[in-house]
């Protein structure tokens, strides 16, 4: 992997200059304790600096120039870099971090290699006295570095999920339909703002089977029976029914839900939409009533009627 790809992988972690986090602080504390040193760092090597995500033993220091970074020497290796005495190592003897504070003598850094192969930095331990790690200490340092990589990648995935969920919620709340999700048993896990307006219930009130409290008492059993039938058959739930709001208002809705199945074919959840069809039903009823009135009037008056569709040429008559 070239340097541009490595830096892109580092940027994709979206971690540089972020605040301290306890899981990373715990890793450097453990590394320092196991190796018996005063300083331990999670160092991420950026374009022109090394930045410390976690820092034990170097208070008020968040970064140093990359040209001075011991950690930069690990970027092309999968192995722990161990410097027993920096003053006798030609690579580091003149380094300002050796000749002045923090007066590094001993350094050991385990590379932080991501699953895509990018080496973004190290978990390192530092002492102001020359020393050597035991084989056990080296093994533990490698394991702690692996844990640090897992934490970095888990953090990235969590951030991507939060961003994706935020986009979904923004789109969902802008939708003209109510949107909802349930668990495998019909317990509500998510509703958008339109769903809440249609049902007259808050997101918290809808959770679990709370959504069902708004069902019209005369429709409740039919809704649950159809839901259970659809779930047993692994079919979409598609039904019109009534809601009864706390203020006594009755609304007609059409609800459609589709089962989500896992690789074994078992239903894990449902996702669906709900539409308020009260006005449409009222309009259909009024139209039907008008048609009945015309038919009765025509029958009484013994008058026939006809209708010609100018677009299709179809002719209908009573």
What do you see in this structure?
This protein is α+β, with helices and mostly antiparallel strands. Helices cover 37% and strands 26% of the residues. It has eight helices and 13 strands. It has helices at 3-12, 22-35, 96-99, 135-174, 193-199, 203-206, 220-233, 278-301; strands at residues 39-45, 49-56, 63-65, 81-83, 106-113, 119-127, 178-183, 188-191, 237-244, 250-261, 267-276, 306-308, 315-317. The strands form three sheets. Strands 3-2-1-6-5-4 form a six-stranded antiparallel β-sheet. A hairpin with a 5-residue loop joins strand 9 and strand 10. Helix 2 (22-35) runs antiparallel to helix 4. The longest helix is centred in the middle third of the chain and has 40 residues, at 135-174. The radius of gyration is 34 Å and the shape is elongated. The termini are far apart. The mean pLDDT is 87.
Which key features would you list for this structure?
alpha+beta; 8 helices; 5-stranded antiparallel beta sheet; 6-stranded antiparallel beta sheet
Largest sheet: 6 strands, antiparallel
* Rg measurement, Å: 34 Å
Shape: elongated
Sheet with the most strands: spatial strand order = 3-2-1-6-5-4
The helix fraction, in percent, is 25-40%
Please provide the count of β strands: 13
Topology record:
Blueprint lengths: L2 H10 L9 H14 L3 E7 L3 E8 L6 E3 L15 E3 L12 H4 L6 E8 L5 E9 L7 H40 L3 E6 L4 E4 L1 H7 L3 H4 L13 H14 L3 E8 L5 E12 L5 E10 L1 H24 L4 E3 L6 E3 L1
Antiparallel strand pairs: 1-2, 1-6, 2-3, 4-5, 5-6, 7-8, 7-11, 9-10, 10-11, 12-13
Brief rundown of the structure:
The N and C termini lie far apart (80 Å). The protein has 8 helices and 13 strands.
